[in-house]
Amino acid sequence: MVLLGAIWGGAFPMLRVAAPAFGPVALIGVRVAVAAAVLLALLGARRRLLERSGALFVLAMLNTAVPFTLFAYATLGVSAGTASLLNATTPMFGALIAFAWLGERLSALQVLGVALGFGGIAAIVWNEVGNQADAPAFAVAAGLAGAALYGIAASYARRRLDGVDAMVVATGCACGAALVMVPAAALTWPEQRPGALAWASAVGLGVLCTALAYVLYFRLLPRIGAARAVTVTFLIPVFGVFWGAILLGEPLTLTLLLGSAVVLLGTALAMGLFGRRA
User: Fold this and answer.
1) How far apart are the C-alpha atoms of 113 and 153, rounded to whole Å?
2) CA separation, residue 112 to residues 103, 104, 187, 223, 278 (Å)
3) Largest CB tally within 10 Å, which of 19, 78, 187, 206?
4) Cα separation of 231 and 29, whole Å?
5) CA 232 to CA 70: how far, in whole Å?
């Protein structure tokens, strides 16, 4: 789980490096193409992708193509650490969407968690945007929209793909996203050739942060259960902030650290982790 958190947290510094060179759309085209190639090689029975191709394609848009692009855009305006914290709001959006769509009840602690989480995000956003131009505000909005789409995707998968093998879902998401994003990448390919570091980051996003991370996550699920596996959400922003500071020299401000603590506490409450005997 620590390795998985480190890999997913490392995606945000890679996005910060590669997104300015490729542009968000072209970068995600490369990322999902690489991930699809790796996952197809690992998936034995490829025929299973065709059995639920329609639902898998919709999930690919909700869970991969669009949110990946939104987070790539977000890193053009905010730090890697802040982007990883925006990603950490996914369980809060998931709880709200499950309440509205699936009728799952929210406890008083979960409602408090959602409020705390968004309060922490508001503090971080205020510190990040400050008196700057509109670009950071749009970047924050893009990150929150991406997290909301992840929350929608979770409820959609439960409604339409319950019981489908996890590796089939992961491969279907990567392949469906590649069908859309690769042509889009060709249309938006940058005139100036991306450098070696940008290419290394793009390929790393595909191999490490998408394909390998999916394999690790779906090996983890049956071993420790979904309730425990989802707590990797707490590790992602910790590593995102850490990698951003170490690799990119991003500042660790008091507002960012306090806001991070509030977001993580709110996420824990929204996920219902407090009050369980375990």
Assistant:
1) 21
2) 18, 16, 45, 31, 21
3) 78
4) 29
5) 21
Structure tokens at 175: 């392949």
Reduce the DSSP state of residue 165 to 3 states and report it: coil
- Return the exposure string of 28-63: e unless at least 16 CB atoms fall within 10 Å of the residue's CB, then b: bbbbbbbbbebbeeebeeeebbeebeebbbbbbbbb
Residue 102 CA, chain-centre distance (Å), reads 22
